[in-house]
């Protein structure tokens, strides 16, 4: 494929498990790298939802991976918070509280994404397109909020 995408070490195991057809009860932290698999080689449900699964997996990585977009933006924000010299550390407190709120949102969104991905990739479950697209939009909004704040500091 010619498209570039973000992946890291936690994606290796689920991808190999998927390609070999092996299944266990381990809950993966990563995702199957659908970008490396020809859509016509997938089962019916995975093929039918291939594009949404790609987008869902990519959004999952960007909000949940240590070097994803959300993590990089919050690192920049946290660094600015630490460098702040505001009275009573008000800037530090405000910025770190915002990161904590985003982290809670991220945890909720990522858990739902992970369940959809695991169910589709290893459980033979068709994904709910509406739910998947909503989660993608929520992830993109979260990324956008953090990137916007990071750029303003």
Structural class determined from secondary elements: mainly alpha
Distance between the termini: 37 Å
The helix tally amounts to 6
Radius of gyration, CA atoms, in whole angstroms: 18 Å
Largest sheet: none
Residues in β-strands, percent? under 5%
Report low-confidence residues grouped into runs of 5 or more. none
Tally of distinct domains: 1
**Can you give the mean pLDDT?**
92
Helix content: 55-70%
Order of helices and strands: HHHHHH
How would the global form be characterised? elongated
Total beta strands: 0
What's the SSE blueprint?
Elements: H1 12-20, H2 44-48, H3 50-64, H4 69-83, H5 90-122, H6 129-152
Helix pairs in contact: 3-5, 3-6, 4-5, 4-6, 5-6
In words, what does this structure look like?
It is a single chain. This protein is mainly alpha-helical and 153 residues long. The chain has one domain. It is 66% helix and 0% strand. It is built from six helices and no strands. Helix 4 packs antiparallel against helix 5 (90-122), helix 4 (69-83) runs parallel beside helix 6 (129-152) and helix 5 (90-122) runs antiparallel to helix 6 (129-152). It is elongated. The termini are far apart. The model has no long low-confidence stretch (mean pLDDT 92).
What descriptors fit this protein?
single chain; 153 residues; mainly alpha; 6 helices
């Amino acid at each position: 494929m010619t498209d570039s995408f973000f992946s890291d070490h936690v994606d290796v195991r689920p991808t190999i498990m998927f390609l070999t057809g092996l299944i266990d009860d381990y809950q993966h932290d990563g995702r199957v790298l659908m970008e490396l698999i020809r859509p016509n080689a997938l089962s019916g449900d995975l093929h039918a939802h291939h594009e949404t699964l790609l987008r869902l997996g990519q959004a999952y990585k960007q909000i949940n991976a240590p070097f994803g977009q959300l993590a990089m933006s919050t690192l920049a924000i946290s660094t600015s918070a630490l460098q702040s010299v505001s009275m009573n550390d008000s800037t530090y407190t405000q910025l770190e509280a915002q990161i904590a709120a985003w982290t809670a949102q991220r945890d909720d969104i990522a858990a739902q994404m992970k369940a959809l991905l695991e169910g589709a990739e290893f459980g033979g479950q068709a994904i709910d397109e509406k739910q998947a697209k909503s989660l993608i939009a929520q992830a993109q909004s979260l990324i956008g909020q953090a990137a916007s704040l990071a750029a303003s500091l």
